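The records we work with from here on pair a chain with its fold. The integers have meaning only within a learned vocabulary of local backbone shapes. A complete example follows; check for yourself that the lines match position by position.

:::
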Amino acid sequence: MSEHPLELSARLIDTGVVDTHPNRITQQLSELGDGVAIIESFSHVVVVDTGDGLVCFDSSGAQSGREVVESLRAWSGDPVHTLVYTHGHVDHVGGSRAFAADAVDRDRPAPRVVGHARVIPRFDRYERTRGYNLAINLRQFGGAAKIVGQLGDFPFLPRGTLRPDLTYEQQLTERIGEIDFEYNYCKGETDDHTWTWIPQHKMISAGDQFIWNFPNCGNPQKVQRYPIEWAESLRAMAAKDAELFVPAHGLPIAGRDRIKQCLGIVANTLDTLVAQVLDAMNSGATLDEIVHSVSVPAETLALPYLRPLYDEPEFVIRNIWRLFGGWYDGNPARLKPPSDSAVGTEVAALAGGVHKLIDRGVELSGAGDHRLACQIIEYAVAAEPESHAVHEARSNIYSARRATETSLMAKGIYLAAKADSQVALTGEAPPVKMVLNIGEAVTDN
């Protein structure tokens, strides 16, 4: 029997020693209190028994929804009265079709779905940008984005995903059975997020506003994130004096003081990062200067719930710049730049040929200067995109760089670069089904 999630979270937070991964994907249900349970999946499903049916927060993804429902049904046969979407990411809503199928099997109506009003336009955006979102999620998890053309009409938003029946704008309170639910809108990782206060259990369902990693507030391929509002939401949650705090990724946390400590530290980290970036922007610094001068203390990044294993501060810094400064980075040559091909060709000519760039890129990579090595090899790719020698070196350089990174986002993009070069070398891409299963199970946008 694995360690109970509340015992494990208390041990990790109180000792600061991380000897196991706090983001467990077991599909197992654990009771967190009388009538409250969590199914640890990707994402989790949090369940509250109201006496008049079950209220479930999120439905997990399309690949895990069926197993989540099986675990739920081993615990309770009561109807699912309501699904509450904490936000519209597909790993939180895609499993709703399994809940709908369970209702059909039991000759019951489909669960009612509650979510913020912006969940609906998010779903519409996913349908308009299906191919793009498939490509960036393949890349995020290490797949060759070029295989998107092989996917036909494969959807990004899983077919059968339930849409919200009841939406709200700022706050909505309702009573279901014997339990009150206070839905609160906030921005953070998304612009459609809901966190919920449940007073009878002194409990908060937090969604992705707390993920046991550095906040996913800078994802380099995805839409805008909101660090200021994110910190505000954490402080609003802390003000509730909750005794039970349940995120959609990572472990639930018990104890008012422990909850306040964790939320306060994450909020302060975001606020400090924003303040540092804005101070630099106000002094006239360029994006390049800010990226290479602003940082988060190592001791902060060592905390069990702030490790940069998914997103990382450098990406958040760029997102803060985008939020306040737009896309122009302060370098006038990049306002209306030449094509990558033109730059690569010119640099190769100055160097004395593409082979010189290959040699230098390999040399820099071997010396551990991965940032410069990657830039040099990209000049070579731009100059001679069909060269096998270039792609062989590129594959090795990105493999070496990936090994030095901590965040899943950086690792995934560098692995995707290696995969693209492997396609150029062999004409073969990773199996489509394998990559899509990974992406559909662990994706955000």
In short: Confidence is low (pLDDT under 50) at residues 433-445. The radius of gyration is 23 Å. Residues 50 and 176 are 6 Å apart (CA to CA).
